[in-house]
Amino acid sequence: MYLDEFFTRAAGRTRISAEQASRFAKQVAGDYNPIHNPDARRFCVPGDLLFALMLSRFGLSQRMSFRFLSMVSADVALDFVENADGSLQVVDDNGKTFLEVEREGEVTHDPQVVENFARRYVAFSGRNFPHYLKPLMEAQGVMFNPQRPLVIYDSMGFSMERLDAADPGLELTHSQLEVNGKRGDVTLEFDLTSNGNVIGHGSKKLVVSGLRDYDADAMDAIVEEFYRLKAYYETTA
Fold first, then answer.
1. First vs last C-alpha separation in the chain
2. Which residues, including other chains, have CB under 8 Å from residue 49's CB and lie 6 or more apart?
3. Among 210, 234, 235, residue whose Cα is nearest residue 32
4. Residue 176, CA distances (Å) to 23, 137, 154, 169, 210 in order
5. What CATH number does residue 204 fall under?
């Protein structure tokens, strides 16, 4: 399985080290958010890794919704649970829930279909910053704290007409940022496509904390650092 190098499994539980999580963020998602760096003070496992692991274990359903309830730290023992009603959860030994998933409709367990869908979505999701967020923040005249940029994955969901797309595509169709004091709620809507035809729709919600007035110079420095890290990783990985 393509995800094998990004987690370890022992005694029926899944653990994700900081190094594994960071490599997934960079290698698969193209996500250079510093919160996924192994030495980050507030390190967390990428929500997209939990998403991909869920699909690999329980398959891809026509309609799915994901709610990220809490950040996962490194090396936490996780259980991926299927409940009697078909809903899914990621929980720890203390019963704390990190992710809840609702699903409906047909399900495919075809490994290639599931992997291709997960890869496409994760690559789309990894473009949150700077591709999607920077223009939204600039237009609203706000930005996150350049010393501690905090963008949290809140939820996502999608609905598809069919599950046999061998090479699915995801295209951003609408984006918005709603500012409420120092908090910003970002909504990204997307189409799911196959051979140029729309076969579904979805949306993703992010929360941006610690908003302040937009500073073009500070934002330019953040974007420059993003591409520096990207270039460095691509040449050293």
1. 20
2. 3, 6, 7, 16, 21, 24, 25
3. 234
4. 29, 9, 15, 21, 18
5. 2.40.160
User: Domain total for the chain?
Assistant: 1
Please report which helix (H) or strand (E) contains residue 133, including its range.
helix 133-140
**Amino acid identity at 125:** S
Angle of the 216-236 helix axis to the 133-140 helix axis, nearest 10: 170
pTM: 0.93
Q: Are 74 and 18 in contact (CB under 8 A)?
A: yes
pLDDT tens-place values along the chain, 237 residues long:
789 999 999 888 999 999 999 999 999 998 888 888 898 888 999 999 999 999 999 999 999 999 999 999 999 999 999 999 999 999 999 999 999 999 999 999 999 999 999 999 999 998 889 999 999 999 999 999 988 888 889 999 999 999 988 889 999 999 999 999 999 999 999 999 999 999 999 999 999 999 999 999 999 999 998 888 888 877 776
What is the distance, to the nearest Å, from the Cα of residue 41 to the centroid of all Cα atoms in its chain?
Answer: 20
- Residue 12 is part of which domain span? 4-236
